[in-house]
Write a structure and sequence with these properties.
Blueprint: H1 8-15, E1 26-31, E2 37-43, H2 49-60, E3 67-72, H3 81-86, H4 89-94, E4 99-103, H5 107-113, E5 120-123, H6 126-136, E6 142-146, H7 153-180
Parallel strand pairs: 2-6, 3-4, 3-6, 4-5
Antiparallel strand pairs: 1-2
Helix pairs in contact: 6-7
Length: about 180
């Protein structure tokens, strides 16, 4: 406001309806097929060391609920990539996660650096994370998904939305619809 010459009130009003585009830290409530809801924080558009740490810090400030973290590798970092991935161990642990899901070869460095008591799953790619993540989700969970765009984390977030949409369709059809599911 001070740089534009506009009042703080005018700027606040102009920004009041703003929501970030998909993959940029948006939070949404999704219905689980077995009942209940999760909060999906989709920050899967891009990832670098600073944005990863910022997303993890924001997750730490979220309210109640188990925290689940899904991270895809940070690509195009260069020679310091292995160390930058490993350096995420403390910020991840600081969130108090119930479980951590990692995808991509570079994420092995983070996996190795995490405290051994933290429950974690590592896979080569996002597709292999689907089943373990799906089985881990419970009512009230807060799920952060973050990674470089090329790591496929946005596809995983979309799959979770589709799974939730399917659950909503079953609920809307009621008992008849539930009987049709085979």
């Amino acid at each position: 406001a001070s740089q534009s010459g506009l009042s703080v009130e005018d700027c606040a009003e102009a920004l009041s309806g703003y929501t970030p585009p998909p993959g940029r830290g948006t939070a949404e409530q999704l219905t689980l097929p077995q009942g209940g809801h999760i909060t999906l924080i989709d920050d899967a558009y891009n990832a670098n060391p600073a944005s990863m740490k910022a997303s993890l810090a924001a997750l730490s400030r979220r309210g109640s609920g188990r925290r689940l973290i899904v991270l895809g590798e940070m690509l195009e970092i260069g020679e310091t990539s292995d160390a930058e991935h490993a350096a995420l161990a403390d910020p991840v642990a600081d969130t108090g996660p119930a479980a951590i899901f990692l995808a991509g070869d570079k994420m092995t460095h983070l996996s190795d650096a995490l405290p051994p008591q933290l429950e974690q799953t590592w896979t080569r790619n996002w597709e292999e994370l689907w089943n373990p993540l799906q089985n881990a989700l419970r009512d009230g969970d807060v799920l952060l998904i973050k990674g470089s765009n090329a790591s496929g984390m946005a596809k995983l977030a979309d799959r979770i939305r589709q799974w939730s949409d399917s659950a909503m369709g079953k609920m809307e059809r009621g008992a008849e619809g539930a009987a049709e599911v085979g």
